[in-house]
């Protein structure tokens, strides 16, 4: 059993064994981990509390250099990390490599941000008084992260947390411990003082809950159900929280769209990375004039997608992460069929050379926005088409959802593009681009049930990871 929890600079084990298998090949047992329990959580927070004050007082350059070393460690190990991620998480190697590179760029970006700690000097309404606005670290930040982007998502929390002087206790999803340990090894090798950064491999309901009970702030990415529960627990403790949750992201395709481009964008946004993206285009909202040609063009492209073992060179769509997601996706396919959605393509589990969690990318047409398949997050390679009469109806349908993460429009009309950008109820909008796939230096997040709390990423991250102090000084 591997001893892979990082506490106070030491690698330690845990009592309960967790066996991880390759979702592309269930006969491939990757490793067995010793899961952390409440004792390890307490030890991690004790270590972080001891180490954080000095880290919070470290020079900006010291912190920047640590971030730079983390970035270098990620770039230097990119191929090894991509292989681990592909084997454990079912991502194709190019997708895995893309994610690893993104994490490296995020760490490098925050090496710069560490040097640009913002502050402000204001005049006072009183004579001979100066006012300074400065920022302090929040303290010990608990990071709870999911399995679908197990490198980039943690890094867009770890990097700003460290850059702005916080201690970190990170609880990744227990579905992807191997890649989490590999990232933690790189952080630990960066000359970061022992105890500032800690990793706990453990289950959400016990270790995650214990992290929430001990942290000064929580940054979470995952489902809206879990996010809601965590936000309530944080409110009870009066600690700040930042929640990135689900999506039911609309891609609107208008009559004047470039058909080939729109179909490419839809297939990319809906099915790549098995649709396991909070930004996935799960609702394709298409106006009458282009509808039939669009559905045909998408179905042709989807039928040609190569589903297979994530480590095989020509695979475009890998397996879904585990048995729970596999069954959940199949369950939603049954629900859609039961709602009389028309199966345009896919709709079944696939048996390939190796036994894994393979699903045929699935497109339903003739759906309505009231159907469950269009209201609940599936989080798999399943998308729907909703036919609408015109742009106005398309926008209304796009906004008729409890979520508001990402929203796209395919059109050649500047008028509609600008109107959509201004009026769609989403945190991120895309014009003639997939709803998924974002830059690493810009704010990431949504509205409604998709996000809660300050934005992540880019220079906006400083809002969550620092607290403001206003100082009055008699001159
Ligand atoms: N929008 C997004 O980015 C994501 C959305 N999802 C959605 O969530 C569904 C379920 O996936 P799942 O992995 O279970 O997502 P969860 O939201 O349950 O898990 C996300 C993270 O929260 C942890 N966690 C779970 N329960 C608790 C808790 N009570 N207290 C503290 N931490 C907790 C998990 O730990 P652990 O995994 O170890 O239990 C994981 O680290 C998917 O089908 C999908 O719809 C999932 C992942 C990302
Ligand atoms: O679309 C992206 O690039 C990011 C998606 C994401 O962060 C997520 O699915 O959790």
TrEMBL record:
Keyword annotations: Oxidation, Oxidoreductase
Xref: CDD domains: ALDH_KGSADH-YcbD
Domain of life (superkingdom): Bacteria
Active site: 244
Name this polypeptide is given: Aldehyde dehydrogenase
Family statement drawn from the similarity comment of this UniProt entry: Belongs to the aldehyde dehydrogenase family.
Organism: Bosea thiooxidans
Signal sequence region: none
Keyword Oxidoreductase: yes
